[in-house]
Amino acid sequence: MKKLIFMIFLFIGISTQAQDKKKFDKPTIVEASCGECQFGMKGKSCDLAVRIDGKSYFVDGTTIHDHGDAHAEKGFCNAISKALVTGEIKGNRFKATSFTLIDDKK
Questions:
Q1: Which end of the chain is more exposed for a tag (fewer CB within 10 A), N or C?
Q2: Buried b (16+ CB within 10 A) or exposed e, 54-90
Q3: How far apart are the first and last CA of the chain?
Q4: For residues 98 and 62, is the Cβ–Cβ distance under 8 A?
Q5: Predicted TM-score (pTM) above 0.90
Q6: Pairing relation of β-strands 48-52 and 55-60?
Q7: Which positions carry the signal peptide feature in this UniProt record (predicted)?
């Protein structure tokens, strides 16, 4: 019985450690763009999204229109940009506490 209880706690401990990083307290560089136009996400209109570790999430806390014309040549609907973000992934959405675009100096 003791071995069974030990194995259960061991399994729980390992599975919680294996979880994906959900909270970003330190500024993290991510890809940002229109979820529908650039990341192929299903939605009703052009909405801001970020891609973290290959997975895309719609963003709450800022909108696609807060960062310039989305349909301009280098806008979110036509290009993928880099952004410095903090926040948390909650239920398939990224809840941004900060979102700053990084200038492309090319």
A1: C
A2: eebbbbebbebeebeebeeeebbeeeebebebbbebe
A3: 64
A4: no
A5: no
A6: antiparallel
A7: 1-18
Instruction: Please report the DSSP string for 85-103 in residue order.
Output: EEEEEETTEEEEEEEEEPP
Please tell me the predicted confidence (pLDDT) of residue 1: 84
Closest to 49 measured CA to CA, from 6, 99, 9, 4: 99
Could you tell me where the DSSP H helices lie in the chain?
A: 2-17
Residue 95: CA atoms inside 13 Å, Cβ hemisphere, count? Answer: 7
Instruction: Characterize the bridge pairing of strands 23-34 and 48-52.
Output: antiparallel
- pLDDT given at position 18: 46
Residue type (1 letter), 103 = D
- Report the distance separating Cα 28 and Cα 26, nearest Å: 6
